[in-house]
Amino acid sequence: MPRSKSLIIREARHADIPAIRRVVQKAYGEGIGYTRDQLRGQLNHFPPGHLVAELDGQVVGYCASIIVTEQEALSRHTWSEITGNAFGSTHDADGDFLYGYEVAVDPDFRGRRIAERLYAARRKLCVDLGLDGIVFGGRMPGYARRARKLGGHEAYCAAVLAGQIRDPVMNFQLRQGFEFLGVLPKYLKSDAESGGAATHMLWRNPQARRDVARAHSAADRGPSTVRVATVQYLQRAIGSFDEFADIVRYFVDTVADYKSDFVVFPEYFSLQLLSVENEPLAPRDAILKLAEYNDRLETLFRELALRYNVNIIAGSHPALQPDGRLLNLAHVFLRDGSVFEQPKIHPTPAERYWWQVEGGDYVGAIQTDCGTIGVLVCYDSEFPELTRHLVDQGADILFVPYSTEERNGHLRVRYCAHARAVENQIYVVTSGNTGNLPRVHNMDIHYAQSAIITPCDFPFGRDGVAADTTPNVEMIAFADLDLAALATARAHGTVQNLKDRRHDLYAVQWRGRSAH
């Protein structure tokens, strides 16, 4: 007897992202869908609101929802405005309505009531959260072919409501108990079948807790505090790779004794390995020589992350690519054994001139056991759109390994780190080099004052600094960062930079490839 197929609705996971992309693209056609970065943001900003339908282990449907305020839900809006340009970054935990902005089903599996199950799961979530209802902008796939005959969108919707014509999506939604509020013009330009507009639909929750005021306080369950450490690293001559490994191991061992969740090292801090060669090299030859250490460094840091139970942002290191390009790569070694890379997007003029380093083409948030992080190498922190792209993906902590020669360069990184923390209401951790390497071109002198930086508001450190270091002294700085405080500040802070963005006027649209 053939076994029956198992269909379940469950919360989407990051491992589902490739499958979700396939489902959405099949549902809407080639070239239409979400980037990996957008899906990563959706799942990070409100995990319970993003569901998949799984049939015998295969993802065949996707449902996306966020919480928004009554004003946002019931007033005129566009799809980009309400969803934060598809990242779900407009989610407001203290809102009133569940806003549905996607239901997609693999066309090969239609006819099995998968969309109906996803709608039911969304209603259950709304009821469980005690929200006032569900709102969305619905498609009108039958509009384009009838537009000339019927006239505008209002006339089309009136004909559907009167039963004179049938629209597969609108009729389905009406059967699901939604009421028609009106037309949202210019809702989604790319939806040609709907003429760029949408139906404004509402489902009222009969069990809404209208007599109970939802709390305006930070989460009080589960661990919300993350301990981070930044190493201000002294550049000095060494005699072997083993000596370098012993120095690094000392720092990792020390931060592990303090039960740190993260430790970050500076940009290019492994350049002291060139002192092992004990001979002057031309700049390009020197950087290529250093790139030969990549495999040994990866083995070292992965072993340290696993052994000491610490997530390590191992600074950055030059890496020669198969196509001959030389990149400055930041490496992240998680304590579960995972390894991630983040290329520097903007090499400095000195990097380009002395070493012919080229820029990378992706910026991706990284999921860890202590929340979502991002890494930007030195100069990249001075370009605000990169941090915004990471925050759209859900990053709460930004690590900035840097290497600067003198105080002006250091201050450019430091001031921009403060700006990024304020603009995005995130934590920023910087780590710089100090000391000297007289025989290494472009790395002969250093200036640093590494820091752990916070937004500037009441829940955070004075002057927006959780921990600081003494300039040009090798040391470690520690701080405990409360992720719940970020959520509180974003929702109810003195200023609410993320919430107050004008999605109707501007957006960061990434044209490079997606990470991971």
Automatic annotation (TrEMBL):
<feature type="domain" description="CN hydrolase">
    <location>
        <begin position="226"/>
        <end position="483"/>
    </location>
</feature>
<dbReference type="InterPro" id="IPR036526">
    <property type="entry name" value="C-N_Hydrolase_sf"/>
</dbReference>
<dbReference type="GO" id="GO:0016787">
    <property type="term" value="F:hydrolase activity"/>
</dbReference>
<dbReference type="InterPro" id="IPR000182">
    <property type="entry name" value="GNAT_dom"/>
</dbReference>
<protein>
    <submittedName>
        <fullName>Putative amidohydrolase</fullName>
    </submittedName>
</protein>
<dbReference type="InterPro" id="IPR016181">
    <property type="entry name" value="Acyl_CoA_acyltransferase"/>
</dbReference>
<dbReference type="InterPro" id="IPR003010">
    <property type="entry name" value="C-N_Hydrolase"/>
</dbReference>
<dbReference type="GO" id="GO:0016747">
    <property type="term" value="F:acyltransferase activity, transferring groups other than amino-acyl groups"/>
</dbReference>
<dbReference type="Pfam" id="PF00795">
    <property type="entry name" value="CN_hydrolase"/>
</dbReference>
<keyword id="KW-0378">Hydrolase</keyword>
<feature type="domain" description="N-acetyltransferase">
    <location>
        <begin position="7"/>
        <end position="206"/>
    </location>
</feature>
<dbReference type="Pfam" id="PF00583">
    <property type="entry name" value="Acetyltransf_1"/>
</dbReference>
